[in-house]
Amino acid sequence: MIERYSLPEMTAIWEDKFKFETWLKIEILACEARNSKGEIPDSDLEEIKSKADFDIKRVLEIEETTKHDVIAFLTNVAEYVGQASRHIHYGMTSSDILDTTLSYQMKKAGEILLNQLYEFKDVLKQRAIEHKSTVCIGRTHGIHAEPTTMGLKFALWFEEIKRNINRLKNAIDEISVGKISGAVGTFEHLSPDIEKYVCEKLGLKPDPISTQIIQRDRHAQFLSTLAVIASTLEKIATEIRHLQKTEVLEAEEYFSKGQKGSSAMPHKRNPIVSERICGLARLIRSNSIAALENVPLWHERDISHSSVERVIIPDSCIALNYILDLSIKLIKNLIIYPENMLKNVNLTRGLIFSQTFLLKFIEKGITREEAYKIVQDSAMTVWKKQDTDLKNELLKSDEVNKYLSKEEIEETFSFDKMLKNVDIIFQRTIYED
Predict the structure, then answer these.
(1) For residue 139, what is the enclosing H or E element?
(2) Cβ–Cβ under 8 Å, residues 310 and 3
(3) Which of 141, 256, 263, 299 is catalytic?
């Protein structure tokens, strides 16, 4: 499912071709740095740069024997280069190219995801402005509470995506480190200048201190950030799934001509995109737990993290890339039903104004407990009887009429008063951006 739909730019980062190209780039850059220090003759460097290459099938064939991917790769490169290949991988350990490459891949993948987040933010901003004044019911515990607007829902998600942008920027910065420091990170056989040169050419920073590997708290932070972003997308998708329920139908995924919702029931229009987002968000979150488990390793390194990362890092990046793409299209094409929203607002026949009346009674000088009882008595009658509403119950209550006139009661039922500060919220979110 992911492979079929994911964007090719992201999947290319995790293919063998890109990985081996980066390995080769690192090896050649290290040779360039050593050449500048007089450790490799110019003629040998030129031979390395002109001849160095690899063949993926040949690498995999050699690996069948060596059971070691880096050795298989170096063996294949040596077949192209010849005698000058003795300079390649000098003083380095496998993790020097493995971890530096992985950081480079994660940085590149993170930048793609970051661009998608910016696009999603813009789409949410546009929909928020469009529906700033589209009144809908706010729900707490799934029960009607007080009115809000659809624009505020979009603005809430917009603000959360802004936070996720900052989180991802920080995570990209933390993972954008490389290491060419040898078997236990002590630079015994290579100068730190080699590491600095290689990292700068790749757009990375030298890891200030490493063992045989870059420490996995960096990777855990990156995957945890992807998990938070995925959770935001699931939060949005879950809301849309609720709003698309037949008995609610305030919003609906775009349903294209010829699309089918069910093999059995021709009438079905299911929120399959939102459900897919929710499902893959769970996978991304579960991968972040595995990344956290990779942080504690034995001494200067063991290999228990490696097999896990070969699955969780590409899968999480590709899956988030995919559901971000889905989310952008989902919100951009989301169908809104203002008439149904208004119908649902009126479903409880005025009960959503209960707090407004509670406060009105308090303003008249009575205690909160007494005011609460007066309003609740009328509200409970409305819950029980379908042929009445809160206004009617308040108007005929002797207790209410002691404090409020008919005019005061009637003028209190106003959406404009309840939503008078929407512009201020938009100034703090949408218009602040």
Answers:
(1) strand 135-140
(2) no
(3) 141
First-residue to last-residue Cα distance in the chain = 36
CA distance 56 to 62: 10
Asked if 293 and 317 sit in the same domain, the reply is: yes
Is 132 part of any domain?
yes
Query: Is residue 262 annotated as part of the catalytic site, yes or no?
Result: yes
| Active-site pick, 262, 286, 304, 414 | 262
Q: pLDDT tens track of the chain, all 433 residues?
A: 333 444 789 999 999 999 999 999 999 999 999 999 999 999 999 999 999 999 999 999 999 999 999 999 999 999 999 999 999 999 999 999 999 999 999 999 999 999 999 999 999 999 999 999 999 999 999 999 999 999 999 999 999 999 999 999 999 999 999 999 999 999 999 999 999 999 999 999 999 999 999 999 999 999 999 999 999 999 999 999 999 999 999 999 987 777 777 777 888 888 999 999 999 999 999 999 999 999 999 999 998 898 999 999 999 999 999 999 999 999 999 999 999 999 999 999 999 999 999 999 899 999 999 999 999 999 999 999 999 999 999 999 888 888 888 999 888 888 888 899 999 999 999 998 7
Q: Do 373 and 234 have their domain in common?
A: no
Instruction: Let me know whether 290 and 380 are in one domain.
Output: no
Task: Mark whether 141 is an active-site residue.
Answer: yes
**One domain for residues 285 and 378:** no
What pTM value is reported for the model? 0.93
Question: Would you mind telling me the total number of residues written for the chain in this entry?
Answer: 433
406: containing domain: 351-412
- Whether residue 339 is found in the same domain as residue 355: no
